[in-house]
């Protein structure tokens, strides 16, 4: 055999769609005599267009422990033997197994060399690499080593927190959904007549159902040769060796290669053109930190102290380093010699040194009990057993913690840290040539050195206005300043004899006009009025606002309060009415100016007045909304829903189909199989898998996105159902439930999908199907698997129930679509019907289990058709949801970018993905990652630094507020200042006498600081880091690679706007790159669930960001020419108030500020202009709202809210609608009277029981089993508990959002007791919403938080409004004045009273019709008949809409009860009104009798 060559072409390529492992009896490919060995299994399509199962042999899980003993070969071998025997013995005892059978849990232990990643180290350190047989035992072995029970040593482990599959993918340059290239494979069970390439036969038996099953050994993987070792950090070099220009991560490099191929195919230059930051070469250093001078004094003292210390002796390290593999090279340590590429350095070596080269790594040392060194007391103690169990559970549940980290917006995954346009590669700046507010460039020298002590000296120069602010450049030299009056020298000299005050105050052009004076005999010259440009230019000099914005006011004088209102220490004077009387008092500035303009005796002239409006224009105005409002003639139809904002295309519907035919990259779609089941239930409850048998199973199969779905139905023949009854569906009937189960299993094996999905896999779909099969002794998970199920870790069942599903299938991904939608979509509820509407833009009905069961058992073909259509559409809709949200494509691209397998993208957290990226850069450089225990993580120092989050100056701002944002602040700081684990020199001042660094103590060799004194930079929190010329930090290099690649991908998206399929792929890639950059800081700061945290690095990043923001704020506030004031700052953004400026001026000033602050900071830190709010409301930290302009050319603003009720999901829809509508009225008109009218209308609907119940439904997450018994549970949990008592199978899943409403109840009733399900409220005619609770506790508080800032008292509006609560909507029939039997069923007292208003005119009428209307019988009858017609028409319209949605005949009863559809509530309302028609018909009958009596009376009078 020959060593593999990099130029070898692969004989087979397999895509890594799914990967797992199994423990197998070793065969000829394993080179081992152990009882069991791990074998990796990879499933996916292959280069020969066959689905393949690939078995990878000779890959073992491993971890490292540091070796501190003698480095002679004899001592190393003896130590390795003792450690191996002791570990095997300790593991057996921890399992309470006998040790006489010579257990073998350790594959091998070898000596390697590596570089500590945790802290700056510049030399190799010896490590022992421990290969483990069973990946599931790694956590147990690590716990034993950390406990001190093995060899009386508490070992510190390294890289044990990396999973087995991630180690394999990283070591061999592989990634999820990428391709593994194999030099040689051996085929299992090959047929002689099989078509296609013929591979060597394997002696192993087939274990999978895949068409092609092959074996390969680790050294047959050619991807490994794309990785090149980088020996950069094992010695101290200044400057350090240059890093390669190409991306270091292979998956990212492939993205660049893919783009080059695409550009070459289009005839473009291969290298993508990326934007360049032209200002990076002229940037400042950022200035000193607040305490930097003190830190440097301490560094100098430490250098002086270390000079007296002797350097540590070097014990022959150069000898052992030659004959030891690096951690990167040790991947091939267990391979056969003929396949090893690594050779010891040098030409000759002694036999003793050769033994260090690990040539005999495959030979396990002889088992001898004399070498066993374990502490039986510790091992046999109950505490040790408990610790092992707790650690294994912690490892099993680590995914749960990671999953929570991935969606913790507050800690990591916040877009505040990474903007849409990444760092260091920004678009060209907009150059504004004529900017009257932009002065000369800010001098960077005097600003930042003394910025921390900035006072009046920090202002940029004197108070003389800059040259560009002068009205005319030609007059600039002639301006002088005398007190407050500016005079040109020429005018002061020529007009000194004149006493006119105007000549001493303003500077005008020297042109004159003639002015007539009555008392004189002629004309005299008067000064020409100033031009518009002169006036605008002088506003800044006289501190006059460029624009006066109207403050909030009451347009109706009656609404204005009588006295001022005080709130939060401020007094508000709100004015009412319109006209000049509400203008502020005139404050003349320089009365002599006015007197000179209008002198006594001047002639007063006349001017032509405008024509009065024509009759036509008056009539048009009367028909307008304003005319109707002012004349009282407006008739607005009151809707039951709360009025809310109506936007164009509110659901962002896109109808253009996606063309996937032009996707250039090699495309292999994953096949998806969707399944839903139907089982008739008992007594109106949900189906019980232990009792209720399956009646039908529905499936849909998607092979590619271009092809139509393949759907089918299996149904059990029964007396109630026969397949020939339904003609619209192709139903395959079976005789029994067992036959149905077998038929489904057969179709799954026949179609062989890569992914099996269901809407709710846990409780229905596959979960219910699997439980029914288990009754017959069938294990569906094994029967539909592509291979035998791999061993699963114990303790992960609860995590699977809460986060994914317990149903598994080897070789196939199982996706619980409901869980996925919870993380993909921001919705109030995650019912199937609501997700379908928001994702697919269509309505689908929801039927109760009892309705579906009645349809099935009724046997009517029409109802059976409705039943089968309902479930058949669900299977296809689930596939449509996955396609619309692009789950498969996005997850596959994420897997490629992150370097993890497909399912880990969904199930694992952010730390796991960051580690994958870091590990791929660190491995070729022989860095070794520490794996701290939970106890070590808990012993870290507490974080000392916090981001700057200012308390905003809460107010309603009518002038522009500019928002500037530091682009990717935390990633930029890590790049600019070289913050990383591998560059950190530790603390300047020791903590309790130790150089405490994260989870360990950092040992810094004496004399190192003196060597690096000119190459050290100090962070803002007093931590030292080496500069990039010594070593570029791995985190910084990783972030640069991520952000540059993201810019490249976004640039590529601009060039393929017409190719929607390719844009989707590119968009998924850039989102994945953005995600990793966002969460990198969070990886260093994670505490409770941290896998390799370093709180000192996190503090360095946070404090540097805080001081960067503080410097920017001080500069903005201290620069007079901008006239700006910072009113809020949050982590990486500032809100700047520009009083009296126009929108155009705000854009220019904001860009000027951003450029000035960017120039003061080192690249790639950049302050970016983000948006202008005009107007806006700042309420509290992270809570603000306003009209947003992102471009100076925008004319229509966008409503932008953060942290308030319009974007929160813990309220009700009415709360969101009212808050947003009130804010829009305030922003557009500043008219508080309009806001008040809208609020009163909305409250009146609720008080009058005319509001839609849908607008008042709460939907909050419920986590059953986590609530205390000492206090009442939340209302949603109480509703769910009552529901569960009635039906145990109706318990909500963990994290499910349960809908409920608050109904009226007796006084002093607890809120939790008045919570009920919305359907129960609709079905109960005696129940109604608690209007007082909703108004006073839900609707008013968010409005108060906003309008208190303008001085309006919203609660007073409600208290003063007339509250006309109608006694009842049931009209009174004159012929039925006495209470009948139905009065007994009236539970509430107000139900015994009918309406006291006239049905036609609305006047007081105790008997339904007033006397006036009764006199005009014909007109009254016409009005009542019209009312009957309206009710019937509305009823028919709602039925027609619901029938078309449900696809049922109009004669069928509509049983849909979807709470997510507004037509349910409209239909129920029309049905309730329909019940009043009998009374109206009785009233018509009475009126007809009255009319007949009147006619008879008239006839009698005539006769």
From TrEMBL:
CDD domains assigned to the protein according to its UniProt record, in alphabetical order: DNA_polB_zeta_exo, POLBc_zeta
Catalytic activity of the protein: DNA(n) + a 2'-deoxyribonucleoside 5'-triphosphate = DNA(n+1) + diphosphate
Compositional bias per record (Polar residues), positions renumbered to this chain: 346-360
Domain C4-type zinc-finger of DNA polymerase delta stretches: 1398-1467
EC main group: transferase
Subcellular location: Nucleus
Location of the DNA-directed DNA polymerase family B exonuclease domain: 648-835
Organism name: Guyanagaster necrorhizus
Protein name, as recorded: DNA polymerase
Co-factor requirement: [4Fe-4S] cluster
